[in-house]
């Protein structure tokens, strides 16, 4: 989970008649919620108590309270400290999966959606966890499902209801997840699928779709498979529903040219499709290049030359770049095991609301989540022995690329096994503790646990992961690494000055997260640490 707080806004409390500062929180590059300091402090207190029960430590210190009103400098310092705190919590393998953390963020999204009127006035003051709705979910073959759910349902709950609609057995649910997608039509491409982001348990797919439509003309929720290792396909071939879902996705990927198919092979695949030979179709498609990869929109990279346009694909333990030069297509593959580390840079063109405007329903206040964001993914790659080079990708999908790389590394290293026992303790303790959420007006409400009521979508089960082909990769042996697995990611937030935001200096402002991966602070891809001379 990548957090950033690029800016703040002044909100008005009708209850007290005063104004307060709201911190605009982005998760994985998308606007999620606006919380005030006391709400984040309440979250911290719950996490602190839960960590004490588990005998673990929080990875960051929460910024202290202040008795007097904050100056502009102190407000900026608090914003940066809160951002740093959330970033460290979001990158902790245990804390990021805690029911406290995910449920609190889910409720924060609901409160912000109501306050900003994203649902309309009819839902003002409603408990969205009890408001029924119909969510349209796309299958890969463009068929749609009308799924009955609640507006406040998280991704796993909605996924379970989708699986019930298509009658997919429960044991196969872990193989699938939900994405936000859109169809792109232009003079060059017609009805091409574009992935926006993967939906997680800290958010409501219904609300996330509404927020995304504030920026995108149209987007939909789609079900797709959730794993990277193509050998897991074999487990789906014995169930008719799972087989049809997998078949529909492969056909979609071939139609979108995500899977490269020579004309003669494409002709055979078309014949198999026409005769309804789905298993044979899948077996043939599995032999094609880029099978099992996700393809992203055209991006700018600085390799082999600056400002090179490339198509990026991620899958099969590698990141692939296809570039065109002199009428020829060149493909460069970067293996994930040779990436020492990577970082994501987000540059927000922020707009600060004038201090004289205190009403949160003002038009400027409602548009803060729409500010454009430029994203860059940079990774340090082992080009040859003793030679490392940074390669930068500029793309609106850079955050999704980072999430994909992280999940691929997790699958390679069986990271879930290292924290599975601790997560079991988290679930056991959560059943005996009552979670709560503090709203903007200070009202405390009890909330259900996301971990105890649903199945998490981001990871496969331990049994499934144990068959990974990358179990020979070694991890760090230090006690700090084993007790607190960390992601090999650095996340930077860059803010620029605009005429609406004169408080920021002309020089760019950065905040960074550094992870503990051993005795000293460093940033490492643990799959990289297992590289041998044969890989070079």
Quick take:
With 536 residues, the chain is an alpha+beta fold.
Give an overview in words.
This protein is α+β, with helices and mostly antiparallel strands and 536 residues long. Among the domains are: 114 residues, PX Domain; 102 residues, Ubiquitin-like (UB roll) (Roll), CATH 3.10.20.90; 113 residues, Roll (PH-domain like), CATH 2.30.29. Helix content is 31%, strand content 27%. The protein has 15 helices and 20 strands. Strands 9, 10, 11, 12, 13, 14, 15, 16, 19 and 20 form a 10-stranded mixed β-sheet that branches. Strands 5-4-8-6-7 form a 5-stranded mixed β-sheet, sandwiched between helices. Strand 12 and strand 13 form a beta hairpin. Helix 6 crosses helix 8 and helix 7 packs antiparallel against helix 8.
Individual helix count: 15
Number of strands: 20
Ends distance: 31 Å
For the biggest sheet, the summary is:
10 strands, mixed
Which superfamily, in CATH terms, is the homologous superfamily of the domain at 3-116? Phox-like domain
User: Which CATH first-tier class of the domain at 3-116 would you pick?
Assistant: Alpha Beta
- In terms of structural class, how would the helical and strand content be classed? alpha+beta
User: How confident is the prediction overall: mean pLDDT?
Assistant: 77
CATH architecture of the domain at 3-116: 2-Layer Sandwich
Q: Which percent bin holds the helix content?
A: 25-40%
What is the third-level CATH name, the topology of the domain at 3-116? PX Domain
What is the gyration radius calculated from CA atoms?
Answer: 23 Å
Q: In percent, how much strand structure appears in the residues?
A: 25-35%
Form type: globular
Q: Outline the low-pLDDT stretches.
A: 350-372, 416-422, 450-524
Domain PX: 1-112
Protein name: Sorting nexin-17
GO molecular function: phosphatidylinositol binding
Region (Disordered): 448-489
């Amino acid at each position: 989970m990548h957090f950033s707080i690029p800016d703040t806004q002044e909100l008005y409390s009708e209850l007290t008649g005063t104004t307060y500062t709201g911190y605009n929180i982005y998760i994985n590059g998308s606007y999620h919620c606006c919380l005030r300091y006391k709400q984040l402090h309440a979250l911290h207190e719950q996490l602190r108590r839960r960590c004490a029960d588990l005998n673990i430590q929080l990875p960051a210190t929460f910024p202290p309270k202040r008795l007097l009103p904050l100056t502009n400098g102190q407000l900026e310092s608090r914003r940066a400290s809160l951002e740093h705190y959330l970033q460290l919590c979001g990158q902790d393998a245990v804390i990021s999966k805690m029911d406290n953390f995910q449920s609190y963020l889910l409720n924060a999204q609901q409160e912000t959606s109501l306050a900003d009127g994203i649902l309309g006035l009819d839902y003002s003051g409603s408990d969205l966890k009890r408001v029924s709705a119909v969510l349209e979910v796309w299958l890969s073959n463009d068929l749609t499902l009308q799924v009955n759910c609640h507006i406040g349902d998280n991704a796993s709950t909605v996924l379970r209801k989708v699986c019930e609609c298509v009658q997919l057995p429960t044991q196969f649910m872990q193989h699938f997840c939900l994405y936000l997608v859109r169809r792109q039509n232009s003079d060059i491409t017609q009805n091409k699928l574009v992935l926006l982001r993967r939906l997680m348990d800290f958010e409501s797919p219904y609300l996330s779709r509404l927020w995304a439509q504030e920026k995108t003309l149209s987007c939909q929720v789609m079900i797709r498979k959730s794993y990277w290792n193509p050998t897991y396909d074999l487990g789906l071939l014995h169930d008719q529903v799972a087989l049809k879902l997998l078949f529909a996705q492969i056909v979609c990927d071939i139609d979108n040219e995500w899977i490269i198919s020579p004309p003669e092979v494409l002709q055979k695949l078309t014949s198999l499709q026409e005769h309804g030979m789905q298993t044979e179709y899948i077996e043939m498609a599995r032999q094609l290049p880029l099978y099992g990869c996700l393809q992203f929109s055209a991006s700018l990279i600085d390799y082999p030359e600056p400002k090179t346009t490339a198509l990026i694909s991620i899958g099969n333990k590698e990141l692939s770049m296809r570039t065109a030069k002199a009428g020829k297509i060149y493909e460069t593959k970067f293996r994930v095991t040779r990436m020492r580390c990577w970082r994501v840079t987000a540059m927000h063109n922020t707009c600060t609301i004038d201090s004289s405007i205190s009403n949160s329903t003002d038009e400027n206040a409602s548009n803060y989540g729409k500010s454009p964001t430029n994203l860059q993914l940079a990774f340090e790659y082992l080009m040859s022995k003793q030679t490392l080079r940074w390669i930068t990708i500029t793309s609106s999908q850079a955050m999704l690329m980072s999430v994909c790389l992280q999940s691929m590394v997790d699958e390679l290293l069986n990271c879930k096994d290292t924290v599975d026992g601790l997560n079991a303790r988290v679930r056991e303790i959560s059943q005996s503790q009552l979670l709560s959420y503090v709203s903007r007006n200070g009202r405390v409400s009890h909330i259900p646990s996301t971990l105890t009521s649903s199945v998490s979508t981001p990871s496969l089960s331990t049994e499934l992961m144990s068959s990974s082909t990358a179990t020979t990769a070694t991890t760090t042996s230090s006690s700090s690494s084993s007790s607190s697995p960390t992601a090999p990611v650095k996340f930077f937030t860059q803010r620029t000055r605009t005429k609406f935001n004169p408080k920021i200096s002309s020089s760019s402002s950065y905040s960074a997260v550094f992870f503990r991966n051993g005795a000293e602070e460093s940033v490492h891809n643990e799959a990289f640490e297992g590289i041998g001379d044969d890989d070079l």
